[in-house]
Amino acid sequence: LQSLTSDVSGLLNSSVLFSGRLYSEKHEWVDVEGSIGTVGISQYAQEALGDVVYAQLPDIGAEVSRDDEVGALESVKAASEVYSPVSGKITEKNTQVETTPALVNKSCYGDGMMFNHPTGYHTYRVVQKET
Fold it and tell me: What is the pTM of this model?
């Protein structure tokens, strides 16, 4: 993967300029579809953590800024904070990850996703685009 660093801002409301998965420097990802960003941790991050046994996610309605600490994951060998790669208000969280943290290991880009929030008029940092 080629590392890219640029700020993308503003024009992501109703007309989509970008659709796809972007990665933060801290190994979180955001998958942008329309005006909704779905957030989780990367395959690399879940492999580095090992078997996840505890997950704490942000509350619905919480206002978060890019790079804010919004949750935590604990495994049998490490603990790690979860950071938001985008700014916005949390509209949905994956409560299944809190009750069954191993979903992060089984499907970090699917059932193990963390939370959603709108991406319109907010800025996020593009670090890596999946190739």
Answer: 0.78
- How far does the chain reach from its first CA to its final CA, in angstroms? 6
Average pLDDT of the residues in 92-104: 97
Q: Are the CB atoms for 3 and 126 separated by under 8 Å?
A: no
| CATH number 2.40.50.100 is the correct assignment for the domain at 3-129 | yes
DSSP letters, 16-71, are: -S--EEEE-TTSEEEEEETTEEEEEE-HHHHHHH-SEEEEE-PPTT-EE-TT-EEE
The most distant pair of C-alpha atoms in the chain lies apart, rounded to whole Å, by 43
Q: Which two tokens stand for residue 113?
A: 């996703």
Amino acid 61 reads: G
Residue 131: Cβ within 10 Å count: 5
- Determine the pLDDT at residue 19: 56
Statement: residue 71 has pLDDT above 90: yes
Domain map of the chain by residue range?
Answer: 3-129
In terms of Cα–Cα distance, which of 98, 130, 126 is closest to 9? Answer: 126
Q: Which of 46, 84, 79, 48 is nearest to 65 (CA)?
A: 84
